[in-house]
Write a structure and sequence with these properties.
- This protein folds into two domains: 38 residues; 212 residues, SGNH hydrolase (Rossmann fold, 3-Layer(aba) Sandwich), CATH 3.40.50.
- 47% of the residues lie in helices and 12% in strands.
- The chain has 14 helices and ten strands.
- The radius of gyration is 21 Å and the shape is globular.
Amino acid sequence: MTDIKRLTLNIAIFLPFAIIIYFAMVIIAAHFPESFMKQNLKYIPGPMGDMFYRTNEARITKDVDILFLGSSHAYRGFDTRIFKIKGYKTFNLGSSSQTPLQTNVLLNRYLEQLNPKLVIFEVSPLIMNSDGIESTLDLIKNDKNDIYTFTNLIDFSNASTFNTAIYGFYMDLFKNYKPITDSIRLSNDLYISGGFVQRDMSYYKAEIIDKQAININPIQIDMLDKIIERLKKKDIKLILLQTPITKSLYNSYTDIYKFDSIMNSKAEYYNFNKIVDLNDSIHFYDSDHMNQNGVEVFDKEIMKLLMVNGLN
C-alpha cells in the first residue's frame, strides 16, 4: 500500500470519530457557561418563542388562501383573525428578523403543504441589509431542524451558527411538537393560532432618530430573486410590501425612494407608509411596530388591496 493510500485510509477511519467527538464537545460545552466553546454557541436557553408554536401549526395546516412571510413586521402586522372574519384562510409564517435566506428555508419546509393562492411578503430596508444570522439562530431553536438547516449555513462563514445548529439538532430530541389550537401567553405577547402575535397595548414615545442611508445586502437580493422565480413557476401570486413604521423612523431614511424602486422592479410592490396615514403616538408601540390600533387600520387597507386584485 502506498503512503498516499495509507494516509487516505487513515483519514477515512479517523474522520467519523473526529466528527462525533466534535459534536459531543459542542453539546457538553453548552452546559458549561465558562467553557471556551460556549463563546461560539448562541443557543439561547429558556422557553420556546412564538416561532416554535408557529411552525408546529404550519405542519398541520394545508391549502391556505394567503401566506404571510417576513420579519416581526409580518407576524405582528397581519392579524389572521381579521382575515378569517372576511372569509380568508391565512397563515402567518413571519419570524424575528427573517430575511430572504430564512424565508427560503421556511418555503422549503412548508410551501408544498400550505399551498397558498397568494403570498404577501413583507420587505423592509433594515431586513434587506441584514446578514440573517439572528433569524437563523431563531429558526434553529424554534423550528424542527433538518437538512435545510445546514444548507442555510452555507451562506455563513460563522462558527457560532454551525455550533448552534449542532446543539439545535440535539435539543430537538426534547421538544414537544404538539400544536396549539387557540392562543398562548408569551410575556407581553399573545400568540394567536394562525401565527399572529398581538402585543399588549402600549404606545410609542416620540424620539429623534438620526438620518441613515439604506444599504442592501446583495446576498439577500439574490435570494429574493430566487424566491420570486420559485413562486412564479408554481403560479403563486406574490405581493411585496413594506408595512407602516413611525414617521420618525421612516423620515430618517435618506434614500427610501431607491429601496422602493428596487422592490418595484422585482414584483408587485406597495409601500404602505405612503398609503395609510398612522399616528406615531396612537398606532405604534415602538418605532417600527404597530400596536393593535395600527394593526386594525393597516389590515383594513390590506383588505382593500385584496379586493382590487380580485381576491375577495
